[in-house]
Every structure is written in structure tokens, then in C-alpha cells.
Design brief:
The structure holds 2 protein chains of 2 kinds. Chain A is α+β, with helices and mostly antiparallel strands. Chain A has one domain: OB fold (Dihydrolipoamide Acetyltransferase, E2P) (Beta Barrel), CATH 2.40.50. Chain A is built from 4 helices and 10 strands; from the N terminus they run H-E-E-E-E-E-H-E-E-E-E-E-H-H. In chain A, strands 8-1-2-10-9 form a 5-stranded mixed sheet, with no helix packed on it. Chain A has a 5-stranded mixed sheet with strand order 3-6-7-5-4. Chain A is globular. The mean pLDDT of chain A is about 80. By secondary structure, chain B is α+β, with helices and mostly antiparallel strands. Chain B contains 21 helices and 22 strands. A 6-stranded mixed sheet of chain B has the order 14-18-19-17-16-15. In chain B, strands 6-8-9-11-10 form a 5-stranded mixed sheet. In chain B, helix 3 packs antiparallel against helix 4. Classes of the chains: A alpha+beta, B alpha+beta. The interface between A and B is medium-sized, with 25 and 25 residues.
């Protein structure tokens, strides 16, 4: 009995994931820390032409051209401001380097798969496809994103349809 | 560690291909037929053949060495004056060069090989050697080779007892076994009786012995080769355990080698001529592929230059650091002057270093040109035409990436020129031209571009026939087209004016592919033709793909880069120069010509600070098809920019060809002029 529990614990410990938490408006989101390359202050971007509003433009990250997406605009959050706390999380997923604008980065937490609960239907606000689930850490609810699906979704318009397939 | 020969194989192949190219180009020079002055050339060819033969054996390409041996013998006779280099011998040697290349390509790609063609060439060489008096050994060798031509499966038993010190010399039995396994089916039995107790075991001694049984088309020499490096450090016993009398003469080896190649082939070689033709194409393609290997040979001087420049950079940095250590109170005008000097030096160093680094990617265009003489010769003889090929500017350097992508279009243009352009000798004489047509290919620097011209003195393009064909194909033809517009029609997909579809060109996938390929490397194709006097096609290419000369322009708060090569002129428009065409936008009257006016702020939906047309600037640009006047707020400066791809991390943006980083670290977008001129 005891041994079985220990084994369970060992297994769940193996499946532990580290999440980077960030805030968008009043909500706290988490993404897999392994997909995060670095965190930077928001700086002026070069606007791209004829692109959706949530794609802010591109920046020069030590010689690499990196597109910047404002998730707050994408998720229809009411006030989108750019101040000294606004940060850009540079992600390295699906062999691409992409920056996402968030209100603030708060914490790194470790959760197990068991902590991850399926999310209720949000309706049209956030597509379920890139929602990995909900987790509770220190009485706070965290929306865990499946960042790879989010980046590759055609809805975000980050990747050519042809190459996304 | 044992020496892993495989890591040198790549280098061997590269060298051999170079050697073959050299042999080919020397053979194609007509001077070589003149026995009074061809000594040095034949020596060069001989040396190339000799080194291929020599290293082929070392790297396990025994069959290549075997084949090359005959070629070498023939060359040696010619070199020593025992026989002249006749036109026949030259053709045969060229054929042999092709066969060696086939074999090396097949060995590299593990692809099937046309053994019959090789055997044919081999016999032809032997026959030529035989045709001389006092040359009995060669004839005898040929006979015995024919006799033992049947493929031989053989079984070998190998007892391999390494000495304990085997590991100390860095050899690994596992690698030897691995090598043997490639030769056929290998049964391995390991004798570990000499293995001591763990406590007594010396980890650096080899206690194991092996008994191996190898079944496959391997020769004793091949089996022995596996043990080449450990011969003195083991007891080795190789016995043949299958029936036939062990015939280890060189000829049977050669036969076995040939059969091992056949074994590797997916399909048996066919004599079918069509298939041979296809194989020939495959070979060309495979030969081209070798250039994509992603490695580059750089002249030592270029590397030395880089090292020197980096040295200078370090000196400048040290100088600046000394100045920076000056206390604030002591910092005076003298220091300021020295700081400025240091920075100027640093700037010069950086620029030189940039040029030198880019220079590493530059290789002479001869890389592509060198294969043309052969192509022209073969084509001309197939088509029964006489062609003089004139190459100019072979030393012009171009970016490696561009050169590789240039090979196909250039080959195609040369084919077209010979097939469609240059007439048959009789027709030429009737037209009052010399019998032999002249095909001139010239490369040169022109401003920031490389210009490559392919011109022939053939019949020229036929305006009426092109127009008729275009109508027949239902192509879009402008009204009262200019000659230039007509010539551009031949670059339309599906267009082909050849009266008969020849094997060489005229399948309708000609010039449009050429144009696409050239545009893919940011080049432009211009066609010029005079009926009866010939056609000239000009490719204009940027010097390098990585750097672009651009003009930075401002629209609202954004800065864009217009490629300088596309800009014809810039002007401040007057209100009375601009007209509106209802529903079609605006045009600019440019000295009587009406050019579409493309406002960047409208196309890109940007706010513009210019309300009146007079406040802005029109940049007149030219693309392959069209001209347009880009309306911008301001011209800023002209500079070289480093092109960065947007697609690496994002996607294609219509109207934008890439991005670059400005001096202040900001990103600026580079305009795609071709697309913008079509957007109006």
C-alpha cells in the first residue's frame, strides 16, 4: 500500500513541469518554461504592413528578426497599455523565435500533471485547442497554455498556412 | 582511436571531381591535339588521372583505380610520344572521364551504376592500347578479363587473433568487424577463453579472438584491407572456403569488384538507349548536386587576410581601451582627437573585415563556366552544328549560393542558343555568315551588379512567330507590343516556339523556368534580339545575396529600404504631373510617359505626414515587367544593408522581400519592388 503510493509519487514527480507564470490583465497564465528563451523589456517595434492588430511588428534580437505578438490584444483584454512593467517573453518553439507581450512576469512554479484540470468551455474567447488546462497554485488559478498549438494556430497568423501543415 | 578513413572520403571525392573537371577542360582545349605544344597539358591530365588512381585504392574504391589504370596507361603512352593524341583518343578519354565520374558518384550516393557502359569504355580503351604493336600484355589481360567476367560469390574464413597490445595503438576491432560486414554477410564467433577474472583484467588489453565467416562478392584484397592497420598487431589467417580455385589475379578482382557494384544496383543495367539517356541526365544532376554539399574551398590568401584583419581589429580595440582608461579630469582635446582616430580606425577595420568575410563566400564564375565547353561540344555534334564558344571574365567572383543556382539557367540558355539560335552550317553559309556560329558568354562587374551575357550570332528571335504562338496559346499580349515585350513572351510558362521538339530543348518548360530561377536569386533577365544577327540574353545579379545597396525612405514614422538596383530616378512631383484615372488609381507624367503612382502609405495603410503631392518624393523604380513611381515622404540615405529573412521566424509579407537592421538597431523592411509594381 505504502509502496504503491510511493511509486505513484515518484511517477508524478517525474511528470513535474515548470511553468513560467505571467499576467494578462487580471488573469494569470502559465507556459512551459522550456519553451522560454529569455525575457525582455518591451521596446519599440518596427511595424509590419498589412498585418492583424495583435502582431505588433518585429524587433532586432541580436541580429535576428523576431516577430512580436501582443497576447492581450489577441485575447481581447480591455486595456492594453505599454509601461515599464510590460515585458516580452521570447519563446523558442517549433524552431522559431517569437516574442509575446504580457503585462508582467510573476513567478516560476512547478506542477504535476495531476494538478492540471481540464478547463471548462470558455466560449469563443480562447480557443480550447491551445488551452492545456487549469491549475491551482497557492490558491491562485492559473490558465496553462499549450504554447506550441497557440503559436502554430492559423488564427494567430504567425506562420504561413502552407508551412504550418 | 583507429584512423577512420571514411572522414577523408569526402575530401578524396572532392579532389577527384576537381581532377576530373581539370582533365575534361584540358581535353576540350583544341590545342591539345597539336603534338608540338601539348606536353604540359597532357602532363596535367596524366597527373590528375594518376592521383585519382592512387587515392582510389587507399579509400576502398579499388574498382575506380582499376578502371583509371587503363586510362593512365593510355595517357602515359601519349605522354612519352609512343602514340599521338588523335581525335578518337580524345573522345575516348572524355568518355572515360565521364565513366570515372559515374563510378565516384555511384560510390558516394550508393546509387546504381551502368556497368555495361563502364565495361564498354574499358574495352574501348583496351582495344586502343592493343592496337599498337608490342603491346601483348594488354591484349592478354583483356582476354582473361572477359573469361573471368562472371560474378563470383565467395566465402572467406578469417581467424583474427589480435595481440594484447592492440588497443594501445588505438585500433578498435569493432570497426574492423563493421567494415567487413559491409562486404557481405558476416558470421562472427568470439573466443573469450583468454579472458581473465575481472580482478586480473587489464582494461587496456585485448583478450578476445574472433573467427569470422564472410560470404559475399569480396576479394581477398578487400578482406585484407580491413586489417590493413593492424597487420603487425595480430595473427591473421584468411582462407577461402568455397570451392573454385582461388584465383587472386588482378583481373578476377576487377570482375568481382564490378559484380559487387552490380549487386548494389536496384535494377539491372539496361542497354535501352532511352534509359542510357536518362542515366546521362541523372549523372549531370548528380554531378551538380555535389556542389550543394555545404562546404566551400577557400583560398589560403583569403584566410590569411582575415587573420590579419582580426589582428588589426584587436590592435584598434587595445588602443581604444587605453584611451578609455584616462581619468575623467585628464581627458582633454588631445584624448578626444585620439579617441576619434581610434574610432575611425575601428570603422575601417570593421568595413575591411566585413568585405573579407563576404569575400570568403565569393568564388570565381569559372565554376559554372568550366562545364560549358563540354556541353557545347556535345550539343553541337548531336545537332550537326558548328559552334565556337568564347568565354570571357571567368575570374569574376560571385557569391557561392548564387553560382550554384546559376548553373541550371545558364546551361539552359546555352542549350537554347545552340538548338534554336545558331543555324546549321549550310543555312549560315546561305545567309552569308561563317559556317561556325559563335556563342559568347561573358561575365563582368557593372556597378553593384554582376552581368552575365549569353549572345549568339544566330537567326535571332522571330517576332511574328512569337506573336502567332502567343495568340495560339492564348497568352496575354499587350497591344502594339514593343520588341522587348515580345521577347519577354518567350519567358511565359508553357511557351515554346521550337518547330520540332528536340531532345535538347523545346519542351515548353524552357525560358520561364530560367526566368524563375534567376528571379529566385534576385536577378533579372533581359532579352535583346536582332533578326538575322543573333540574340543576346543578359542576366543581372546582385553581387551577393546577403548584402544589398539600398535607399532608405521614410513613410510616416516607418523606414523602408528600396533596393538601389531597381531605382531609376527620384523626383519631387508637381501637382500638374499627377493625374487620376478613374477607378485605376493615379499616374505620374514622367517626361511624356505615364507611370503608375504607388503611394506606400496607401498600400501599407500607414499614416503619411504629407498631405500635398508636392511635399513628397517619387522614387521611380523598374521591375522586370513594369515601372512604377513609389510615393514616399522623404529620402533618407543610401547605404548597404544586410538582408535578413522575415520568414525564418515569421511569414512572407506581400510587398516586402525581407528586413534589415539599421545603424541604430531598429529593424527596417526591404521593399519587394517587383510585387509593388504589380500591386497598383
Amino acid at each position: 500500500m505504502n509502496a504503491a503510493r510511493q511509486r505513484d509519487e515518484a511517477q508524478s514527480a517525474e511528470r513535474r513541469r515548470e511553468l513560467l507564470l505571467f499576467r494578462l490583465g487580471d488573469e494569470t497564465y502559465g507556459i512551459d518554461i522550456l519553451s522560454v528563451q529569455e525575457i525582455r523589456r518591451y521596446e519599440a517595434v518596427t511595424r509590419l504592413v498589412n498585418t492583424p492588430e495583435h502582431i505588433k511588428g518585429v524587433i532586432n534580437l541580436r541580429g535576428t528578426i523576431v516577430p512580436i505578438v501582443d497576447l492581450r490584444i489577441k485575447f481581447n483584454l480591455p486595456d492594453v497599455t505599454y509601461n515599464e512593467f510590460t515585458v516580452v517573453v521570447i519563446l523558442n518553439v517549433v524552431k522559431r523565435v517569437i516574442g509575446i507581450v504580457v503585462d508582467a512576469v510573476s513567478d516560476v512554479v512547478s506542477i504535476t500533471e495531476d494538478d492540471l484540470k481540464p478547463a471548462p468551455d470558455f466560449g469563443a474567447q480562447i480557443d480550447d485547442d491551445y488551452l492545456a488546462g487549469l491549475a491551482t497554485v497557492e490558491d491562485r488559478m492559473i490558465i496553462v497554455l499549450d504554447i506550441e498549438s497557440l503559436i502554430t494556430t492559423p488564427e494567430l497568423g504567425l506562420i504561413d498556412e502552407a508551412s504550418a501543415q | 582511436m583507429g584512423i577512420d578513413v571514411s572522414q577523408f572520403v569526402q575530401a578524396f571525392l572532392e579532389e577527384s571531381f576537381e581532377g576530373l573537371d581539370l582533365m575534361e577542360s584540358e581535353l576540350l582545349d583544341d590545342e591539345i591535339l597539336d603534338s608540338s605544344c601539348n606536353g604540359e597539358r597532357i602532363n596535367t591530365i596524366f597527373r590528375a588521372a594518376h592521383s585519382i588512381k592512387g587515392s582510389a585504392g587507399t579509400f576502398g574504391f579499388g574498382f575506380v583505380g582499376e578502371f583509371t589504370h587503363g586510362v593512365e596507361t593510355l595517357l602515359d603512352r601519349i605522354r612519352s610520344g609512343q602514340r599521338p593524341l588523335t581525335e578518337d583518343a580524345r573522345a575516348l578519354l572524355l568518355e572515360a572521364v565521364d565513366r570515372i565520374r559515374d563510378m565516384l558518384i555511384a560510390a558516394r550516393d550508393k546509387s546504381p551504376l551502368d556497368n555495361e557502359a563502364i565495361e564498354r569504355t574499358r574495352k574501348a580503351i583496351d582495344a586502343m592500347l592493343e592496337s599498337e604493336p608490342g603491346d601483348a600484355p594488354a591484349a592478354a589481360a583483356r582476354e582473361s578479363r572477359e573469361k573471368s567476367a562472371a560474378p563470383a560469390e565467395s566465402r572467406w574464413r578469417i581467424r583474427f587473433s589480435p595481440h594484447r597490445s592492440l588497443f594501445a595503438t588505438g585500433n578498435d576491432p569493432l570497426r574492423i568487424l563493421g567494415f567487413l560486414r559491409d562486404l557481405g554477410t558476416l558470421a562472427i564467433e568470439c573466443d573469450d577463453s583468454a579472458l581473465p577474472k575481472l580482478a586480473e583484467l587489464e582494461p587496456e588489453s585485448c583478450y578476445l579472438r574472433w573467427t569470422l565467416e564472410l560470404e559475399g562478392p569480396a576479394t581477398e584484397a578487400q578482406v585484407r584491407e580491413a586489417f590493413e592497420w593492424v597487420e603487425d598487431q595480430c595473427d591473421l589467417e584468411i582462407t577461402r572456403i568455397d570451392a573454385p580455385a582461388a584465383d587472386t589475379s588482378r583481373d578476377s578482382e576487377a570482375a568481382a569488384d564490378a559484380s559487387s557494384l552490380e549487386g548494389a544496383a536496384d535494377e539491372p543495367a539496361s542497354t535501352d538507349a532511352a534509359r542510357a539517356g536518362r542515366a546521362d541526365q541523372d549523372r549531370r544532376r548528380a554531378a551538380d548536386r555535389r556542389n550543394d554539399a555545404g562546404s566551400i574551398r577557400v583560398a589560403v590568401e583569403k584566410i590569411d587576410q582575415l587573420v590579419n584583419l582580426v589582428g588589426e581589429l584587436v590592435i584598434s580595440q587595445a588602443m581604444l581601451e587605453t584611451i578609455a582608461r584616462t581619468d575623467f579630469e585628464d581627458f582633454d582635446a588631445v584624448h578626444l582627437e585620439r579617441l576619434r582616430q581610434g574610432l575611425a580606425q575601428l570603422e575601417r577595420n570593421t568595413r575591411e573585415l566585413q568585405e573579407a568575410v563576404l569575400g570568403v563566400r565569393m568564388i570565381p564564375i569559372n565554376f559554372v563556366f568550366s562545364r560549358l565547353p563540354r556541353l557545347v561540344r556535345d550539343l553541337a555534334s548531336t545537332l550537326g552544328k558548328e559552334v565556337n564558344l568564347v568565354l570571357e571574365g571567368e575570374d569574376t567572383e560571385l557569391d557561392k549560393g548564387v553560382i550554384e543556382k546559376l548553373a541550371d539557367p545558364l546551361t539552359h540558355m546555352v542549350r537554347n542558343a545552340i538548338d534554336h539560335g545558331i543555324e546549321k552550317p549550310d543555312a549560315r553559309v546561305r545567309a552569308g555568315k561563317p559556317r561556325a556560329g559563335t556563342l559568347k558568354i561573358r561575365a563582368a562587374h557593372q556597378g553593384g551588379n554582376i552581368v552575365i551575357e549569353v549572345s549568339d550570332d544566330g537567326a535571332g528571335l522571330n517576332r511574328e512567330r512569337i506573336l502567332a504562338k502567343a495568340a495560339e496559346r492564348g497568352l496575354n499580349v499587350p497591344e502594339n507590343p514593343s520588341d522587348r515585350e515580345v521577347w519577354q513572351l518567350i519567358c511565359t510558362p508553357g511557351f515554346s516556339t521550337a518547330e520540332k521538339i528536340t531532345d535538347i530543348s523545346g519542351r515548353g518548360v524552357g525560358m520561364d523556368v530560367v526566368r524563375q530561377n534567376i528571379e529566385a536569386i534576385k536577378g533579372r533577365l533581359e532579352i535583346d534580339s536582332t533578326p538575322g544577327h543573333g540574340t543576346r540574353m543578359t542576366i543581372r545579379l546582385p553581387l551577393t545575396l546577403a548584402i544589398l545597396d539600398g535607399m532608405s525612405v521614410r513613410v510616416g514614422d516607418e523606414i523602408f529600404i528600396v533596393p538601389l538596383t531597381a531605382i531609376l530616378e527620384s523626383l519631387q512631383p508637381k501637382a500638374d504631373q499627377v493625374y487620376t484615372i478613374s477607378g485605376r488609381g493615379r499616374v505620374l507624367n514622367l517626361r511624356g510617359d505615364y507611370v503608375p503612382l504607388v503611394s506606400l502609405s496607401d498600400v501599407f495603410h500607414l499614416p503619411s505626414s504629407r498631405e500635398q503631392i508636392e511635399d513628397g518624393i517619387c522614387v521611380v523604380v523598374e521591375s522586370a515587367e513594369d515601372r512604377a513611381a513609389l510615393f514616399v515622404d522623404e529620402l533618407i540615405a543610401q547605404h548597404q544593408v544586410v538582408i535578413k529573412s522575415l520568414e525564418t521566424n515569421y511569414r512572407r509579407v506581400p510587398g516586402i522581400s525581407g528586413a534589415t537592421i539599421l545603424g541604430d538597431g531598429r529593424v527596417a523592411l526591404i521593399l519587394d519592388v517587383d510585387m509593388l509594381t504589380q500591386m497598383h
